[in-house]
Structure formats: C-alpha cells, structure tokens
Amino acid sequence: MASRISISLHYVTLFLLLAQISHSSAPIPKTKNHTELSTYIVHADHLAKPSHFAKVEHWYSSMIATYSPREAASSSRILYVYDTVMHGFAVRLTGDEARRMSNATGVTGVYEDRQFRPLTTRTPGFLGLEPGFGAWQDTDYGDGVIIGIMDTGIWPESASFNDSGLGPVRASWKGMCVDAEDFNATSCNNKLIGAKAFGAASPRDTDGHGTHVASTAAGSEVRNAGLGVFARGTARGMAPKAKIAMYKTQETPPITDVVAAMDAAVKDGVDILSMSYGDDPPPKPFHMDPLAIAAFGAVKKGVFVVLAGGNDGPTASTVTNLAPWMTTVGAGTVDRLFPANLHLGDGTVVTGQSLYCTKENHTAIPLVSSTCNEGDMTPGKILGKIVVCINQVDSPGEIQNAGGSGLVLVDKLHGWSLDGSAAEPFNFPALILSYTAGEKLGAYMASVPNPVASFSFGCETVIGKSRAPMVAAFSSRGPNLLVPELLKPDVIAPGLNILAATKDSYKFNSGTSMATPHVAGVAALIKKKHPSWTPAMIRSAMMTTAGTIDNMGKKILDDGITDGRGGTVATPLAAGAGHVRPELALDPGLVYDAGAGDYVDFLCAINYTVEQLRRFAPDMATSCTQALPGGPAGLNYPSFVVVFDGRGDVRTLTRTVTKVSTEAETYNVTVVAPRHVKVTVTPATLDFKQQYEKKSYSVEFRSDAGGSGWEFGHIIWENMKRQVRSPVAFMWKN
C-alpha cells in the first residue's frame, strides 16, 4: 500500500484516540445486532459479592453462567479480571446478554469495548535540565522512581535503555519481563524492569512509538545521537536514572486491554503512569468512560497519571482527558529548527524545514500545483517540476517515480510560523512550509504564468534563534466540554519535532503523545525528591511554577491559525498554567492538594447519582453529604474558571494551600484581572510557620455588565524567593 504524508493527520497518527461510543444515559450502547458477540467490561462492586462465593472469580463465573449460558465453562470465557484500578471482568457477550447482565445485583456498569487508533537531544536543556547541577543533581536524575509506560511496546536493545551505573529495582516491585518468541526476558535489566503485553503476543515494539515515548521519559544517556547530520548530541530522557516498565497494547487497542494494562501496572507498583491515549471529541461522561474510572482507581492508589490532551487543535473545545484526577498535557514547540530555503523566481526566499540534506546547487525549475493524490501525479504533469501540495500528499515516492524534481508541502492547517512547522526526513529534495510562507509562495505563483524556484538545504540544526515555546497548532484546546469550570489542559511540554529512540535508531515525532512523557519524567524527578507527595501535589507543583514567558522574554504565543490570524498570545485554554519548568517545580513553596474524597465531592457537584459515584469509589460513595462551595469550580485545583451565567454577578471560590517549604514564610497576593471584573482575595497575606501547614483563602469575583466571551487573568502568592501562580479564566454566558 502506498505511503501517505498528511499534515492534517500527521499529528493525529502519533496520538492514541478512543473511538466514539454512545452518549445515551444507559451504560450499554446499542449494537447493530443484538445476537452478535462483542467484548464488554462488566464493572462490579466487589463489596457486594455474595458471601457464599469464596472468590470474586467464582461470582463472576456465576454471572456469566446465568446471563450468558454457553457450552464452554464460564471461567474459561473471562478474558481479564480487574482488581486494582477497578473491579470486574471482560467477557464476550451478545448485546441482549450485556443488557441483562447490567441489571444483575452488584453490577455497576457494562461498557462495550471500543478501539483505540494511533494518534531527545535538546528538550532536557530547553527545560533547564543540565548535568552536574540543578534539578538533575538534586534528584540524582530520578534514580529508582518507576515510570509505567502504556504504549506500543519497547525495543530493549536500544542504547537508550542501557543500565550502566544503575542499581537494582526496589524490593517491593512486583513486575516482571515476559518471554515471547521475539522478546527474551533476559533483555531486561536495571533500566527496563518490566515488559508485559496485553492483546499482543510480545512486548517488542514493531511500531516505534512506544520506544520513542519511553526514551523521552527516562532514556539513559546516549552520546552522539541524532538523525543523520541533524540534531547531533547527547540524548537523555527527562529522568535518565528512572526505571521503565512497559505495558504494551496493540497499535489500535481495545479499552479492555487498556484497563488490564493499567490494572497490572498499578498492581506491579509503578509510581508514574504515562499514557498517550485520549477520546475523540466530544468526550464521554466520566461515569461511562472506563479509562477515567481506572485512572481514578490508580490515583487513589497514589499513582501519578499523566495523559495526552489531544491533537485536534487549534479548534476550541477539543481537549480530551478532562477529569481532575488526570494530569492533561498540551504540546509546545522548542527552540530548534532545521531550515531549508526555497528561492522563488522573483528573488523572494521563503524558509521552511526539512531533514533532507544535500550541498548540491539547484537551478531554477518549474513549479506546479497538484491535488497530490496518486492519480494527479503523472509524468505528463509533474515531470521535471517541483510539486506544490497543500496539507497532504499521497506517497512522496510517486512524485519521484513520475519524474518530479522535488516537493513543497504547505501546512495551511497547522503552524502559523516556521517555528511551529514539522520536519520530515525526505529522501529527495523537499521541504515543509508554514502557513505564512505558503501564502507568499501562493502569491508568487499566482502572479506569473510560469513560476520557477530552486532549493537550498543548509543541512544544519539551528538552536536558540527562534521564539519558543509556542503552543503547537495541533495541540487540542479548551474549554472543557464536560465541566467548563475545570481548566484543561493543565500544562504544556515539548511536543514538536522531538528526537528520541525508535527501534535501533533515533527519529523525530510530533504530538501531545511526545509532550506527555516529558511531564511523566518531570513527575519522576519530583517524586524522587518528595516521595510522600500525592499525585495532586505533584501536578500542583508543575502548574503553579509553569512559565508563561518564552526564551525571548515575551509572552508565550499560540501558533494556531484561527480566522486567518496567528501568532497571538496563548491563553490558558491553549497553554493551561503554562510551560513546565522542572527546576522550579521541585521547590514550589505552596501546593494545592486533593484526594479521592475531594474528587467525589467534585462529582457530586456535577450532579452525579450515588449509583454513578459507586463506579469510582464503592467504598466511599454512599451519598453526597455536603455541597462543594462554588460548585465544581470549588475543587481545590491550582487553576480557576469563573463562570458568570446570569444567576448573579458575584462568584466566591475558596482554595487551601499546603506549605511544603521547610522554613517559615509569608506570602502576599497579587491579582491581575480583566477590567470587567473586580477580584478580592481574603486574606491578602498568608503567614506560615511549619512545613505542611495548611491555610485557606477565599476569592470574590465581581463582574460588571461589560463582560462577554472569555477573558483571563491570574492570582499569584509570592515572596522574595518563590512565586505560586494560578491562571484564572472568566466566561460570560450571555
């Protein structure tokens, strides 16, 4: 089958997205044929197990025998038993059987399986991580922290997984590496301490995506890594001494496999769980999403769960993984370019990016526009010409086969600027132009009857000359469709043109899939320094210290294209709290903590029933005993969303901060708000004497009649040493 390069799909194919399911209130989606077998997760309340069953497995087998009788033994039909992040089992049922089982005593939900589809030498330094001092030295490079990666597997022979200088895994670790036909358990070592497969025959990575993600999070030091002449340097993950455990799923895994992998990872004892998974918009309600339910269970066990925010930007309300117990990551650019020039016949030079290298002098040759479908790339049209494609091209090799002299791929869907363009390893003269450069090319081609151009390739890597970070155009944006009062994404991290290991080499990938392991690695550093911190404290540390200023000392830009405009200042709907800064996150001063009880109160605030609550916390959720002041916006979260919806012009929210620094400190508040809102913080000063001392404050937001749409501000608690910043988003529903 011919290969295809598509700007519109390039990022999406690097990100694992959940397929659509029904939005009906019933937990069983309708199937086309009620007698056709499908796989289902049967979510059970293990506390409701009848006492005459010695084990839950016996209970589950009894359910199957009752509601889905077959000749085969009921116990042999169970595909997975879940007992850690949630309770229940996976089984093949007809639609009618699933509906009947959903009414069984002790069953809280039945979810039809749905498929997932597929969605660094510079980035540590760009984030301020340098050998010998700072965050890496303070945390011993994350030594001993265990990061569980759920992805397409791992290539254990990669140099990024060498264990030189690493000690053995801690005694409490329960994981293991499995033997398979193409994977030997002895391939594991003191770096790669676990490798299991779910729905696949082997943990080996035949795709390359999982290896890339794992090495980004915690790859060992590898000198002189790069892709050809490009980006040569020392490759390291964010936490180079952290341990890696891989939980492989298929390239398009069903949710049954995903939940089984999560269950195993938490049971094995991972500290961090990194998942480049997410829903197709619109999102599913939390109580109908096994991923959200299982993530709740993992966080309840103390595991920090980080997920990709999606690659459907710059369209609004496309961000996924929206639950407050998840840490949701958007993608930013880095200050590294691979410039290549296109010299137009009128003397104009437009610059793009390319990983093709030649020093040959190119003469001017004709330009020709094409639909770039295979049927349009014929010798009669493109022989001896540079082919200009908009957004996508079927099989670049077809251009060569038909005698084309080169390719210019114009990205009109993503990337206002050169800095936000992807770089591709072409094997013939070709480059990618951003939206603005493409506009110049289009204007020239329209102005002359016979447009011509020539290439020049610098074969170089340019660092520090471009503004960065910017929010990558493809990174999914808020607001949160399920709960507008909760800001998502939480932070952004490097996600464009990320170099990392893949099989036996190194390559570039882009997407929030790449941003996610950066945050997982930073979380490992924080966990190393502060082993007792909760997942919410770790997320808070990253959010309240995140940067909103780029490397040029200006506000971070949004590289998305909306209504012909680009290069505008990024809002919290695109960047969340800002760009993660590991050095500062290790010492945030104050944190906003939250636990399972707080999340149950949050679910009560969005009107969840007791039955729905029990899917998350059957041991806790007996009733909603108290209202969360301020509704869902009152969750003790490091960001604020204030909604003025006609029920009044005043909103009051309360937050509680925990002092994690060791010395006595005083913090004073600074507020920035739009002119239509008056903000009053009480008290305006917080005095702390002891470590882990807690203090609460309230914020009154008073709107006048002039507000509309979305506006933004922030609240900062600060002293001479530390600054604790929370973004504030204001929304008026007129």
From TrEMBL:
**Keywords assigned:** Hydrolase, Protease, Serine protease, Signal
Quote the Pfam families the UniProt record gives. fn3_6, Inhibitor_I9, Peptidase_S8
The UniProt record lists the Inhibitor I9 domain at 39-115
The reply on keyword Hydrolase is: yes
Keyword Signal included in the entry's annotation? yes
| GO molecular function, a single term | serine-type endopeptidase activity
Give a GO biological-process term. proteolysis
Q: Which PROSITE patterns match?
A: SUBTILASE, SUBTILASE_HIS, SUBTILASE_SER
Q: Which residues form the signal peptide?
A: 1-24
Q: Which SUPFAM superfamilies match?
A: Subtilisin-like
Sequence ranges assigned to domain Peptidase S8/S53 in this UniProt record: 142-553
Q: What is annotated as the active site? A: 151, 209, 513
Q: Where is the Subtilisin-like protease fibronectin type-III domain?
A: 635-729
Q: Which family does it belong to?
A: Belongs to the peptidase S8 family.
What protein name applies here?
Subtilisin-like protease fibronectin type-III domain-containing protein
Q: Which organism is it from?
A: Eragrostis curvula (weeping love grass)
Q: Taxonomic classification, please? A: Eukaryota, Viridiplantae, Streptophyta, Embryophyta, Tracheophyta
